[in-house]
Amino acid sequence: MRDEIYHKARKRLKAKKGFFKHLSVYISVGLFFFIMNMVTLGNDPELWFFFPMLPWGIGLLIHYFSIFGLPFSGALTEEWEKKEMEKEIDRARREYGDYSLPAPKEREDRMELKELEKEKQPGWNKEDLV
Fold it and tell me: What is the pTM (predicted TM-score) of this model?
């Protein structure tokens, strides 16, 4: 179990390291293109340095989302992936009637604090009950 956790953490660290290398190369090449553009500007003020950087920037953004997920939404993170996998396993179990796969955790086990607080605050008083 410890080896599995270590390898998973190592793999995640390697992915993050790869992203930051990608980002540093992107910034370096972008700076080089910008300087080259400014030096060769001459009388014609045409800025071309962003043309090669734009598609590369889109690729860098996709790389970011694949590692860190979508900001402020929690989508594409490990937790999101785990929840979606549970949903798909549950759906497949119902669809095919194959219950050999382990069932996902029941909803009560996964309730968030906000949902628990809502359950604690009923819309009626105890005195209203007969």
Answer: 0.60
